[in-house]
Automatic annotation (TrEMBL):
Membrane topology classification: Single-pass membrane protein
Species of provenance: Variovorax paradoxus (strain S110)
Name the UniProt record assigns to this protein: Ancillary SecYEG translocon subunit/Cell division coordinator CpoB TPR domain-containing protein
Pfam families linked: TPR_21
PANTHER family: ANCILLARY SECYEG TRANSLOCON SUBUNIT, UPF0070 PROTEIN YFGM
Annotated GO MF terms: protein-containing complex binding
Domain Ancillary SecYEG translocon subunit/Cell division coordinator CpoB TPR: 17-209
Main location: membrane
GO cellular-component term (any): plasma membrane
InterPro entries named in the record: SecYEG/CpoB_TPR (IPR018704), YfgM (IPR026039)
């Protein structure tokens, strides 16, 4: 009986040796690859967390600079953000924040440069749209109408389409192009929907452009019920 068991164990051992000789190298490489991928993933996660922490710290510096009104410092810190963390949301937020502060300090050129960078480089389409809208507004103030319209060309997220139409209407009105302004204000009014507070402002603009907003409201027709057979 013992000899039979010894033979079975030997046979199993021989099969295991054969299996390992056939697939051992492959298994080793698979294990190494999985382990390497795990280590790389953890390393990447650590890198991203560390990068986000550094970007957040630098954004705080931008925020403090805007609060103090130090124009030179704002531009310097924003430059660091663009160079080191351009692909982060913090950099895009910093660009918008810095642009506002720079414009309020009378440095319109630097403000437009910051907005232009966000409009071109932002990963998030929402930040891009906000930058384009604000840049178009600044260009409108400086009477750079064609450039302002150019900034509003191209696709934007659907929720920004009424705001883009409204801004285009402002530009066309400034140019004296009433018909074009009316068309854009109509788009804005329709796109905003009745629950939007901003729609009231667009109504004032429509009136100023010679359009009664009530004429744009959909007419609800009620079909009379068919008489019942007696």
């Amino acid at each position: 009986m013992a000899t039979h068991l010894d033979l079975d164990e030997q046979e199993q051992l021989d099969q295991l040796k054969h299996f390992w000789n056939t697939y051992g190298t492959l298994i080793t490489w698979v294990v190494l690859l999985v382990a390497g991928a795990f280590v790389a993933w953890n390393g990447w996660q650590y890198f991203q967390r560390n990068k986000a922490a550094q970007a957040a710290a630098l954004y705080d510096e931008v925020e403090r600079s805007t609060q103090s009104g130090d124009v030179e410092r704002i531009q310097r810190v924003l430059g660091d953000m663009k160079e080191r963390f351009a692909g982060t949301a913090y950099a895009q937020q910093a660009g918008l924040l810095a642009a506002k502060a720079l414009y309020e300090k009378g440095n319109a050129e630097a403000s437009r440069a910051a907005l232009g960078w966000v409009a071109q480089s932002a990963v998030d389409p929402g930040y891009k749209a906000v930058a384009k809208l604000r840049l178009a507004a600044e260009l409108l103030d400086s009477k750079s109408y064609d450039e302002a319209l150019k900034q509003l060309s191209g696709d934007v997220p659907k929720e920004f389409e009424p705001l883009v139409a409204d801004r285009k209407g402002d530009i066309y009105m400034a140019q004296g192009k009433r018909a074009e302004a009316q068309a854009e204000y109509r788009k804005a009014w329709t796109g905003l929907g009745p629950a939007s507070d901003y729609r009231r402002l667009v109504e004032f603009k429509l009136n100023a452009a010679g359009v009664d907003p009530k004429s744009l409201a959909p007419v609800i027709t009620v079909t009379p019920a068919a008489p019942k057979n007696s």
